[in-house]
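By way of example, we now present a protein record of this kind:
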Amino acid sequence: MTRSTPSKLFAAALLGVAVTACSPTVATRGNMADPDRIAQVKVGQSTRDEVATVLGTPTSVGTFDQNVWYYIGQTTEKTAFFQPEIVERRVVVVQFDDGGVVRDLKTLDRSQGRDVEIVERSTPTHGREMSFLEQMIGNVGRFSAKDTKGKGPGS
């Protein structure tokens, strides 16, 4: 064994660690409903209990209509320190009639979504801002050890 062999092994190990460190981290969040399971839900036949058994608990229920269930999930990949990239997004919308039978079933993907622009503004408030010191001094003397009946601690 020559002297350069350990350094070559070390370089190869370092290269291997560097390559694996750059492989993306895959994260799945929410309920990524399997297409085979979605196919088991039949419009006009499946009941609310059957849907819960097949797809699980919904991610969300309609705010104004309790007969609408949403199954929302997405898969992202993140490489090193970069922002995560959305690989797949799926939203399954299940609507029930008043009898609890599936009335409609839709599967939406990433292409049907819309970007929402976040508004960066704040609501103005009346009054003035007090510093930490002003708040501390302003509270001195406001609180006493006596309760509303005039009794203090240990009385």
